[in-house]
Sequence to fold (554 residues):
Amino acid sequence: MRSMAEVCHELSRMVGVLVDRRGVVSHVILGDSAQLLYLPDIGRSRAGPGRLRGLRLLVAAPAGKKGPGKGALAVPHDLLTDLERLGLDLVGLFEVLPGGEPGRAAVAHVLPRADVAPDGVPVRHRTEQFRSVHDIPIEFDAFITELEAELTRRADRRKTAEEGTRDRAVLVGAYTTPRHVHLASMNELKELAKTAGVAVADTFIQRRSTLDARTIVGKGKLEEICLSALHQGADLLIFDRDLSPSQLNAITDLTDLRVLDRTMLILDIFARRAQSRGGRMQVELAQAKYSLPRLAKKQTGLSRLTGGIGGQGPGETKLEIDRRRVKDKIARLENEIEKLSRQRKLRRQRRNDRDVPVIAIVGYTNAGKSTLLNALTGAEVYAQDELFATLDPTSRRLRFPEEREVVLVDTVGFIRDLPPSLTNAFRATLEELHDADLLLHVVDIGDPRKTEHIKAVHGILEDLGLKEAPRLLVFNKRDTLDDETAENDAALYGALPISAHTRQGLGELLNACATALWQQHDLKDHEVWDKAALAAPPEAEPGTSPDSDQAAAG
Fold:
């Protein structure tokens, strides 16, 4: 302390030292003329969940020409940022008086658990002020052992609670829309993260008149978000919007955390869920198209010369090679998907030749479409209370009385602001909708956002050229509401209330389908439907094997 005070007084600059837990000084840092202290790169040694860096930062700062200040000594914001960002054991600051003697002091350290200030802002560190460095009562060895032990206990409890998740993320939303709109959007992002197996550590919502062109939320807010992520043990930032290539580069330049946007998250879910060969190819195509404009211009290995004399320079040819490979991959996948589309067209033609009507089940993701297919046909298609449980369309035959039958097709769920790359990639899947004689638009009756979901589905169907397609609005999950509320809600929208889970209302639904297809009413009593037709064993579409990719692709 005396040596630092002497140097600080002589040079009139801040002086800092990094000291390890053995008491050895590892770095000495001299501040600049603006009284700012820039720490060197200290690497990533030791830092991790429940662990600190093993280094403490001690700083001597000139008191200034006006002499010692009054009141408590405040630790500068940039030093507190370094404390959290680098995972330092603590930051100790003391002022140097005009005579070269030490004056007031302050010590700051991270908290095992963030406190909440009266203004609602989370406080992730604690600062203690002293009139003199001689008044500091901290016994460092005991202090750091206890602090790191508590951090480790919290990290272990968090790991146990989130067992089975893949990553821990902070969700970020910046909006110019009203509060109720952006809250619904953030809730949907949380569901997407849950479906992807990501544990949500924290959420940040920022409402702005205009979004920051480079970082969406602004540089200062991004720094705050990154500090919160580090404190929460998160290694991933997920933005509730699509990031342009320049925005992605700007954000990744300012943080060591991995960064995803909404489309990247959806693509990850699709990649994990696709089962058939066609589904996997379509996901791979969407990923390739999305990644092409986002190929990093600054990546490891770009300094290799591959073009020889007269080439475009270090790195440029390597980047061009990467781009060409992605373009070749896109061309190959589009050709294969086109073949798949022709195969599906032949199967649909055989179906049309037999004059078998097709009913396609459409709707927002997690509305219960696959559950409805299983309830009507006795099939065992994967159905769970999660987003995008179905990616590969499935066709099953359903027999009606009077020797009539239809083909029931389950399709991929829609979502708000469905990325164009996904719509284009899944065009072979969605072609089934163009040959459908009737669309069953399934809606979760208990979802408070069902009006927005209905509009989103209508918008996507219109983009696909299906605005005039015959459709029947079906409100599913009526068992989640009382009968009176369910009936009133359905009547308000002109929908048919059912429950695919309890099979309530399925008889009425089948009669409504028969009316729409053949203009016939009350083919059978509803009770007969429930006992006979609805209990029939699953039947795959003729000419296909239920276990084959072709059957899964419909």
Notes: Confidence is low (pLDDT under 50) at residues 297-313, 525-554. Residues 459 and 467 are 9 Å apart (CA to CA). Residues 316-353 form the longest helix (38 residues).
